[in-house]
Amino acid sequence: MEGINTVNVLSIDEEKLKFRVTATFAAPNINAIDKRGEYKFELPIPTALANSHEYNSCLIESKGFQAYCLGGVNDPVWNVDVGAGLLTKVAALELHLDIPSSQTVTSTQNGAGVSGVGNNRVGGYREILFLDCHSVGDGVGGAALTARSAAWTGQSQSGPILCGNPFGKTLTIRNNCAINDDKMWLVSYFAGAGANGPDLGHYIYSFDITMVPNR
């Protein structure tokens, strides 16, 4: 049998443990309690492997994020849930999922106090997405690259995070301001100035989830 090429087929079994999850939300069309920076969704069990007592943990990796308003919104801007609302530019979004994890620590400092102390949070799925604003058109045939055509794309620069098994549960996904440590969502600047305006955003999230066998 010398000279015969062989292939290790264990990689096929490993691929069965990997799942792609996409979650999308059109905030203007969903219930008021399920928006304004936090969005609920059910994550069904795709195969028996995602519901096996032999796989209580998984690796979750963010594969991308995009946020935009429909073409009728001429002045989209991020609103942070601080007091009556804070309209601000945002360069990074901290993405939260309410899934157990002991692999994350966040420290934010945005106010007077003892230098170096910060507001510390430990645990849960948290991922920093560095945002890039670009044009995707305005939906009505306009060619001008204006605020009306703006969309924010987020990319992670880190690897997957070890978490509990999320399948078969109702999850909450949260757009969190990395500086102010409060949830945020897209509003119209004119309509939302000085107040927590209505959530006008469309949000798209993509994750790769790989089940991890119990030890």
Q: What's the alpha carbon Rg, rounded to whole Å?
A: 20 Å
Strand tally: 14
Shape: globular
Q: How many structural domains in the coordinates? A: 1
Q: What class, by secondary structure content?
A: mainly beta
Give an account of the 3D structure.
This protein is mainly β. It has one domain (18-102, 123-212). The chain has two helices and 14 strands; from the N terminus they run H-E-E-E-E-E-E-E-E-E-E-E-E-E-H-E. It has helices at residues 10-15, 189-192; strands at residues 18-26, 38-43, 57-69, 76-80, 86-88, 92-97, 105-108, 119-122, 125-135, 150-155, 161-164, 169-177, 184-188, 201-212. The strands form three sheets. Strands 1, 2, 3, 6, 9, 10, 11, 12 and 14 form a nine-stranded antiparallel beta sheet that branches. A three-stranded antiparallel beta sheet has the order 5-4-13. Strand 4 (76-80) and strand 5 form a beta hairpin. It starts with 9 loop residues before the first helix and ends with a strand.
Summarize the helices and strands and which ones pair or pack.
Elements: H1 10-15, E1 18-26, E2 38-43, E3 57-69, E4 76-80, E5 86-88, E6 92-97, E7 105-108, E8 119-122, E9 125-135, E10 150-155, E11 161-164, E12 169-177, E13 184-188, H2 189-192, E14 201-212
Antiparallel strand pairs: 1-14, 2-12, 3-10, 3-11, 3-14, 4-5, 4-13, 6-9, 6-12, 7-8, 9-10
Descriptive key words:
globular; single chain; mainly beta; 5% helix; 215 residues; nine-stranded antiparallel beta sheet; 14 strands; three-stranded antiparallel beta sheet; 2 helices
